[in-house]
Amino acid sequence: MKMHSVFLVAIFFCLACTELVNGQPRNDCQTSCGNVTIEYPFGTSQGCYYADDPSFSLTCNETDQKLLFGNIEVINMSPSGELRVWKNISYACYNSTGNLTDYSYHTTTLGNLSLSRKNEFTIVGCNAYAYLSTFGTQNYSTGCISACDSPPAENGGCNGAGCCSTDVSVPLGSREYRTRPARLASMTSVYDFNPCIYAFLTENSTFHFDALEDLKNLRNVNKFPLVLDWSIGHQTCEQVGNRSICGLNNSTCFNSTRGTGYNCKCLEGFEGNPYLSNEHGCQDINECTTNSTIYKHNCSDPSTCRNKVGGFDCKCKSGYRLDTTNMSCKRKDFGWATILLGTIIGFLSLLLLISCVQQRMKQRKTAELRQKFFQQNGGGMLVQRLSGPGTPNANVKIFTEEGMKTSTNGYDQSRILGQGGQGTVYKGILPDNSIVAIKKARLGDNSQVEQFINEVLVLSQINHRNVVKLLGCCLETEVPLLVYEFINSGTLFDHLHGSLFGPSLTWEQRLRIAVEIAGTLAYLHSSASIPIIHRDVKTANILLDENLTAKVADFGASRLIPMDKEQLTTMVQGTIGYLDPEYYHTGLLNEKSDVYSFGVVVMELLTGQKALCFERPQQSKHLVNYIASAMKENRLHEVIDEKVINEKNWKEIEEAVRVAMECTRVTGEERPLMKEVAAKLEGLTVTKAKHQWSDQYPGEVTENLVGVGILSEQGDTSSTGYDSIKNVASMHVAAGR
Ligand SMILES: *[C@@H]1O[C@H](CO)[C@@H](O)[C@H](O)[C@H]1NC(C)=O
Ligand SMILES: *[C@@H]1O[C@H](CO)[C@@H](O)[C@H](O)[C@H]1NC(C)=O
Ligand SMILES: *[C@@H]1O[C@H](CO)[C@@H](O)[C@H](O)[C@H]1NC(C)=O
Ligand SMILES: *[C@@H]1O[C@H](CO)[C@@H](O)[C@H](O)[C@H]1NC(C)=O
Ligand SMILES: *[C@@H]1O[C@H](CO)[C@@H](O)[C@H](O)[C@H]1NC(C)=O
Ligand SMILES: *[C@@H]1O[C@H](CO)[C@@H](O)[C@H](O)[C@H]1NC(C)=O
Ligand SMILES: *[C@@H]1O[C@H](CO)[C@@H](O)[C@H](O)[C@H]1NC(C)=O
Ligand SMILES: *[C@@H]1O[C@H](CO)[C@@H](O)[C@H](O)[C@H]1NC(C)=O
Ligand SMILES: *[C@@H]1O[C@H](CO)[C@@H](O)[C@H](O)[C@H]1NC(C)=O
Ligand SMILES: *[C@@H]1O[C@H](CO)[C@@H](O)[C@H](O)[C@H]1NC(C)=O
Ligand SMILES: *[C@@H]1O[C@H](CO)[C@@H](O)[C@H](O)[C@H]1NC(C)=O
Ligand SMILES: *[C@H]1O[C@@H](CO)[C@H](O)[C@@H](O)[C@@H]1NC(C)=O
C-alpha cells in the first residue's frame, strides 16, 4: 500500500518533470475564468503556470467567476508582458465642517510584478492634493494638486481644476505603492459639490473627467484598470540565449520593458501565444481569410491575396501589373511609346526574319547552283569514273567552290598570275599551305562534258616530269576550275622575249628545253594510255621551274584521240603563229598539228624572235617564213640569235633549224612524228650533229609560207590588238562557219 503511493508520487513528479523541461503547460489547464482568458505563462494550477513560479499563479473564484492575482481582480493579460487588473480608488471624505469622516487608503503589493509606466496618477476633487509613493529597489514619490471654488465648466480636461493627473516615471521594478488624497486645510466651501477627494493610478487615458458627476461621487465607479508589467526570469535575451522559451515556436525574444527578464512575441505574420509550442502557439496568419482588421491583407480589388508563411502576396489579376511604388495593381495600358516600340521591334524582327530567310534562300540557291554546275560540268560522271574500274591511277581531287574561294583569297587581284585567252590563272594557297595554280578550264558546250572529264582523268594520270601536274578540279563553278602544281619561274616566252629573268638562255639550255618538250609531246602522242594532242603548243605554255626544266602546261585545248580514230574534226583552236595551217583549213586535227607548233617553238628558241612579228617585213611576219626566206637567201647567220652562236655549235644549230623546218611543213603527212623529232634532237645533244635528214632538206620551203595565209586572213585586220601574245594568246576560230 505504501509502496503503491510512493510509486504514484514518483510518476506524478516525473510527469511534472517532463512538463517543465519543455517549459510547456499541461494539456488540461484551465483556459478561462469568467470572461477572462487565461494565457500561459499564467495559470491557475501547478503545471499550468510557468516554471512553478508563483509569480504567474492566478486563482479563479468559481462562485463569482473572477480571476484573481492575489486579491486583485484580473481584466486580461497580454503576451507582451502586461497584466491588466482592476484597482479600487483611494478616497477621503469630509463633512461640512471639514472633518475627515471616511477614507480608504491603499498600500498595494504587486508580488513579483511591477508597476507599469503606462499608468498615470490622477486626483479628482477641489482644493485637494494627493501623493503617490512607490517602493522597490528605488523609492519614488509624486503628487498633484487640484484647486477650484466651483465645479469647472468644462469636462474632460484633467488639468488642475477639479482634476489633476500626471504621468508617472515610476522606477522600474516598483512592486508596491500607496496613494493618499487629502483636502487642503479649511477649504470647506466646496463640500456641497465635492464631499470626497479621490486618487487613483490608472492606465493612461482611460479616465475621462466628468466635472459635476465625478466631483460629487466617484465611488460609484470605484475601480480603474491598472497595468502591471511581468517578464520571465531576470536575464536578458542575450543572457538566456537558446534557453529562452521563445524561439522554438515561431516567436522571438525581447527584453522586458520593466528592466528585468524577457518576453516573447510572435514573428511577423504569426499569431498566437508566443510562449506555447503547441497549436495555440504562434501560427501563420492567413492574411487572406482572417477577420482581424490588424492582420487583414491590403490587396485591393484588381489584385488577389495569396497567403505565404509569415506574410502574403498581392497577385495582380491578369491584365494588371504591379506598380511597385505603392504596391498596387495598375491596368496594363500600352502607351504610345510602348506601341511605337513594339511596332519598331516587330518591324525589325520581321526585317531580320526576312533577311534570314533571304540569306537561307540565297545559300540554298548558291548550293543548288553549285550542284547544278557540278552536274553540268560532269561532276557526277567524274565521281562515278573515279570510283569505278579503269582509272586506277587517277588521282583527281575534287575541290569545292568554297575551298577555291578561300585559297585564292576570294579571287583577289593580287593573286592573278596571268591572264589570257585561256582565262585567268590564280595563285592559290591550299589549307595545307601548298601553292597551286588555279585555272579556268575552257569548255565549249555540254556535249563536250564527257570529253572534258576524260581529259581531266587522263591528264591527272600523266605523271611526267616535264608536264605540269593536274592535281584536281572544281566543278561547282560555271566555268570549271583546274588545279595544277605551281611552277615558279615563268614561261619560256618570258625567258626568250621578256627581260625579267636575268641572263638569256644558252644554246645548251635551249636545246635541252627543246628535247624535253619534244620528249613530252612524243610521250603524250604515243606513250600515254590514250593519245593526247596538246593543240596549243607555244612558248607561253612552256613553264620553267627553278632548274629551267621545261614543264608543258595548259592542256586546256588538248584533245584525246580515241584509239579507233586517227583524226578528229573539231573546232579549230590554237594560237596564231603556232597554228597548223592544214588543221586550220580542214579542221581535221591530228598529232601532226602539235608537230607544227613545236617546230615554231624550236624556231623561236633558235632565233629569239616571236612567232609573229609585225616589225618584220611583210613576207617574214611569220617566223616560219622568216627562217625559210633566210635559209633560201643563205643568210641563216643573220636570223639566228647571236647570243647562242659560237664557233662550236653551228652544226647543231643548222641541224636544229632543219628539224624545225621539217616540223613546219605544210602537209601534216610530210612532218615527222614527234617521236622521231625527239630522237633527232636528243641525238644532237649526244652525238653532235649527224645529218640524217639533210637529204630531205630544203624541202617544201614555199609550202612553209602557207602560214602567211592565216595571217592575212585575220592577223592584219586585228593587228591593233596584237600587242602581246598574252592578249590574244589564243584565238578561237570556228572552222566551218
Ligand atoms: C462577462 O461579459 C458579459 C458581456 O460582456 C457580461 O454581461 C458579464 O457580466 C461578464 N461576466 C463577468 C463575470 O464579468
Ligand atoms: C517571486 O519570484 C521568486 C522566484 O522568481 C519566487 O520564489 C517568489 O515566490 C515570487 N514571489 C511572489 C510573491 O510570487
Ligand atoms: C469567492 O467569492 C465569494 C464572494 O466574493 C466569497 O464569498 C468566497 O469566499 C470566494 N471564494 C474563494 C475560494 O475565495
Ligand atoms: C473594492 O471596492 C469594492 C466595492 O466598491 C469592495 O467590495 C472591495 O472589497 C474593495 N476591494 C478592496 C481590495 O478594497
Ligand atoms: C463633523 O464631524 C465632527 C467630528 O466627527 C463632528 O464633531 C461634527 O459635528 C460634524 N459636523 C457635522 C455638521 O455633522
Ligand atoms: C499616455 O497616453 C497619451 C495619449 O494616449 C500618450 O501621449 C502618452 O505618451 C501616454 N503616456 C504613457 C506614459 O504611456
Ligand atoms: C523605501 O521605503 C521603505 C519603507 O519606507 C524603506 O524601508 C526602504 O529602506 C526604502 N528604500 C530606499 C532605497 O530608500
Ligand atoms: C544552446 O546553445 C548552446 C551553445 O550556444 C548549444 O551547445 C546548445 O546545444 C543549444 N541548445 C539548444 C537546445 O539548442
Ligand atoms: C510555426 O509556424 C508554422 C507555420 O504556420 C507551423 O506549421 C508550425 O507548427 C509553427 N510552430 C510552432 C512551434 O507553433
Ligand atoms: C537586452 O538588454 C541588454 C542589456 O540591457 C542589451 O545588451 C541587449 O541588446 C538587449 N536585447 C534586446 C533584444 O533588446
Ligand atoms: C470571420 O467572420 C465570419 C462571419 O463574420 C465567420 O463565419 C468566420 O468563421 C470568421 N473567420 C475567422 C477566421 O474568424
Ligand atoms: C472637527 O471636529 C471638532 C470636534 O471634534 C474639532 O474640534 C475640530 O478641530 C475639527 N476640525 C477639523 C478641521 O479637524
Automatic annotation (TrEMBL):
Residues 1-23 form the signal peptide. Keywords: ATP-binding, Disulfide bond, EGF-like domain, Glycoprotein, Kinase, Membrane, Nucleotide-binding, Phosphoprotein, Serine/threonine-protein kinase, Signal, Transferase, Transmembrane, Transmembrane helix. It is a single-pass type I membrane protein. It is found in: Membrane. It catalyses: L-seryl-[protein] + ATP = O-phospho-L-seryl-[protein] + ADP + H(+); L-threonyl-[protein] + ATP = O-phospho-L-threonyl-[protein] + ADP + H(+). It holds the Pfam family GUB_WAK_bind. PROSITE patterns: ASX_HYDROXYL, EGF_3, EGF_CA, PROTEIN_KINASE_DOM, PROTEIN_KINASE_ST. The chain crosses the membrane at residues 334-357. It comes from the Eukaryota. Residues 411-694 form the Protein kinase domain. Residues 284-326 form the EGF-like domain. This is Protein kinase domain-containing protein. It comes from Brassica rapa subsp. trilocularis. The gene is A08p037460.1_BraROA.
